Amino acid sequence: MSALDGQIALVTGSTRGIGAAIAAEFARRGAAVAVHGRDRAAADSVAAAIIRDGGTAMAATGNVTDFGQVESVRRQIEDAWGPVGILVANAGGSFTPPAPLEQIPEDGWRATVDGNLLATFLTLKSFLPGMKERRRGTIITIGSAAGRRADPRSPIPYAAAKAGIALLTQDVAAQAGPFGIRANCITPETILTEGNQDRIPAGLQASLADAHPLKRLGYAARRRDRRRVPRLRRGRLDHRRGHRRGRRCRARLTILSEKEPDQPAPKGDIGYR
Q1: Which homologous superfamily is 8-249 in?
Q2: Known catalytic residue at 158
């Protein structure tokens, strides 16, 4: 019997890349998974693949930068299955190319901050009240190495938004912990998703890999398609910092990857995911 049997999970931005990998792994471990995106055909395709592999899945569509549409996603899932117990706020991306701060266009800044930080805020705002009422739930947000490490090549709007997500998650953990809800943020390194392999020049890929202790970059799927996500077992939680504590609830992120954006990033994005 899997630890996720009987759980209902939503992974936002899961029509491709890391989001699709998380959704598929949750389904393999027994969860009923809602595949989310703005493209109905893409969401249906990922959900169908999960079902063919013996899992339980449905598609839910909506723009996570619009609270009304996020609420619609929540209702779609609740009407079909019931309330979400595992929420992965994965949708986002870098929607303006890296540039010196004074050259960053205002619309690119707003699109990236809204597509990451605002989207995460609205997603949690929609699903957290129900979790508090039920006094249980698991929330995972996705940050980035770009949000915790200075680098002149970083896309600044993306890095700032991801740093904000990490701080947001810590405060949510402190507020929601007394209700039996765990909130944790994962901050992966640069990941060679399908889109990033095309966008990041080979030379830059090599330099990014050389800066990593393992001397390689991550992929959304491991060799032989053995993808893993954090274990979601019960354990003690440091509600002050939003970190797992204790042997049984230690995160095991061997996926070493980041989520695929919910929409294609512009050319020139170096792909901090």
Answers
A1: NAD(P)-binding Rossmann-like Domain (3.40.50.720)
A2: yes
The pLDDT tens digits of the residues spanning 204-249 come to 788 888 877 888 888 776 544 544 434 444 333 333 334 333 333 3
Q: Which residues pair with 182 in a beta bridge?
A: 138
Q: Can you say how many angstroms the Cα of residue 97 is from the centroid of all Cα atoms in its chain? A: 21
Catalytic, out of 158, 191, 217, 257:
158
The pTM for the full model equals 0.80
